[in-house]
Amino acid sequence: TPAAVRPGSTEEVRAVVEACRRSGTPLVPQGGNTGLVGGSVPLAGEIVLSSERMRAITDVDLDSGQLTAGAGATLAEVQSAASAVGWRYGVDFAARDSATVGGMVATNAGGVRVFRHGSTRRQLLGVEAVTGAGLVVSRLDGLVKDNTGYDLAGLFCGSEGTLGVVCRARLALVPPPGSMATALVGFHDVSSAVAATGLLRRWVPGLEAVEMVLRAGAEMVAEQTATDPVFDPIPPVQLVVEATGPPDPVEALGAALESLDGVLDAAVATDAARAAALWHVRETHTESIARIGTPLKYDVTLPSSALSHFCATIVGEVTELAPSTTTWIFGHVADGNIHVNVTGYQEEPDEIRRIEHLILSSVDGARGSVSAEHGIGTAKRAWLLVNRCDGDVAAMSAIAHALDPDAICNPNVLLTRS
Amino acid sequence: TPAAVRPGSTEEVRAVVEACRRSGTPLVPQGGNTGLVGGSVPLAGEIVLSSERMRAITDVDLDSGQLTAGAGATLAEVQSAASAVGWRYGVDFAARDSATVGGMVATNAGGVRVFRHGSTRRQLLGVEAVTGAGLVVSRLDGLVKDNTGYDLAGLFCGSEGTLGVVCRARLALVPPPGSMATALVGFHDVSSAVAATGLLRRWVPGLEAVEMVLRAGAEMVAEQTATDPVFDPIPPVQLVVEATGPPDPVEALGAALESLDGVLDAAVATDAARAAALWHVRETHTESIARIGTPLKYDVTLPSSALSHFCATIVGEVTELAPSTTTWIFGHVADGNIHVNVTGYQEEPDEIRRIEHLILSSVDGARGSVSAEHGIGTAKRAWLLVNRCDGDVAAMSAIAHALDPDAICNPNVLLTRS
Description:
The structure is a homodimer.
Chain A: E1 4-5, H1 10-23, E2 27-30, E3 47-50, E4 57-61, E5 66-70, H2 75-84, H3 101-107, H4 114-117, H5 120-123, E6 124-131, E7 136-138, H6 152-156, E8 164-172, E9 180-187, H7 190-203, E10 207-214, H8 215-224, E11 237-244, H9 249-259, E12 263-268, H10 272-283, H11 285-292, E13 296-301, H12 304-321, E14 326-332, E15 337-343, H13 349-365, H14 381-387, H15 390-403
Parallel strand pairs in A: 1-3, 2-3
Antiparallel strand pairs in A: 4-5, 5-8, 6-7, 6-8, 9-11, 9-12, 10-11, 10-14, 13-15, 14-15
Helix pairs in contact in A: 8-11, 12-13
């Protein structure tokens, strides 16, 4: 078992970093350890720097809607602190009881409200962190407008622990939600659904989510959960659309849906039970797939212009390459973020590599992102070199070397460090 | 006159940067040259790299609401291209016909819609830029979710040309505005106005602006523009509040104002002429001050908790230091961004320095920002060292050295380069 240290303050983190530099010992910052790409797991003798003793939530400001959270505070703790003063935190996802502020900042965590409120970087007004060179960077005063130099907080966000250790973060809060409405809408094809998404963004104030499922997935969910589909026959493509009010979101959604072209079916929920029934086909997608078998999972973003073509072709391409497989496509269509899950594959490293190569090189060829939310970690380092241009990778490496010259901060993650 | 080059493409920019590196010639990127801190003006033999031949707007995407703009495109050109497809660009300010995309990215330009839509960094989905080391970084595919490494676009944004030359930017658009309502609200003091701002943010969907003026400023505007004030007597503090609908913003604002404590007077506009009359006291502040004399101008942000105290004390402190002066305070209270203008000062470098020192060290002591929007440039380099901690400045310097090792990119701006 590798050693673990549990510093209780920024000054103690600095002392740990200095000791690591002197002894040439690399470290891995670790929060809730909920990541999916191996970013917080020691690989080769790194010590673990745990944030669990830095979990205080302080300086809650009611007027500006801001708070400061220690790296070890969980997402659920931040959400409670925000709700307690009449605000809410704009990021939410299922691992809320384990995932920590330090990890969310390091990975630019997303979740189910990214379309409306943005990912973690958007909430971040400042950080206190210790760089790999032992510098303490700190700007926790919650200054919404501050053009005094580079955006260090934004740079640390998404750096996956490679630049240093995040100790505290100043987070912006968002107003609490009003009433909510949910619609399920059927379309002929992905292009109509993508075009409709663009119009809904302009027409529906308070649009919170636009999620897409395909017919094969809806049939699979109906079978796995023994539930009747909302529409019979099931349309080729369905969108789950959610909006908050005011204005009355049921009325706003209804009016927008009447003006859309290419709508085959539409249902708008007027109560919570019906809303849950409309969400069912999307909410139970992941667990329904898991009943078939452990899937290979890819979390990708396509440019809006390439989304329809990718969705129309990738399933057939994977089937042709690996005939025993089934490919499921669903996700956050308003952000271009698609989950591609593959079941029924042969448990052979070569087949798994071929499938990954087919899907991610197709995404890369369409100028998409091979990692929408999960990051690079150790699992996707080879793909970073494919998906980002040489200049981007060289610039990132130069920045990593500048802030962590001895390569002691998470040196096996994201970049290949010298 | 220093030399100027006008490259027409990213490749030509790279050739210029390489030539500058080989010959040890520094360069200053220049767009519309509308900055206020000397960031785009050659000081010591730099050549000027003009963006005027890189002004194409391409890849306008209707579904996702995005476009790509060359560094030389003006803000007005971006706004027109967005409006032409039923979207709008989220940043606006008075210099729209001159200010360019390259300059707006380099300075993280703000303006009158920052409270609602954020500054330039918030609109920025990617950049193509040439670093001082000659690397071409490029990610222009408009990927809303993309966790593949560091946020290079966000880092270039606000770097004031010190890391390299921005050639193109992928910009996110926002939905067009609906109906609009304007209110003028009087309060006893700044604390009540600040508290009311926090409540309005939570209560009024579509809140676009909350601007503050003080009684002395309102009296000055009434006199300089020969206009009757809206309220008689003029309240100690007034907020101009603007919201867009739906829901009906007149109704939403009216309901919110009835629930606020400490309101002395309130007027809600129901037509454009009345709205202009309510805005008058704020809109004509700058020009009214200019009629008294050329002011010293400071553009600062205070943390929400320090805003009231700063506004209550700074006027008296400046008067005590320089009895011939008058100090005017007004600005974007929802962002904590206050404009401090001083008229009637003695035209002596010592007096000007003393006034600047008093105001900016007061801001710094309150943990505010000495530059909310304008940046550091050459004019405020000494204040960067005061206002940012040593670790922040050292980290910025390390990043500048990593991307521009020969210090050829705007070397006299922002940081002291070796």
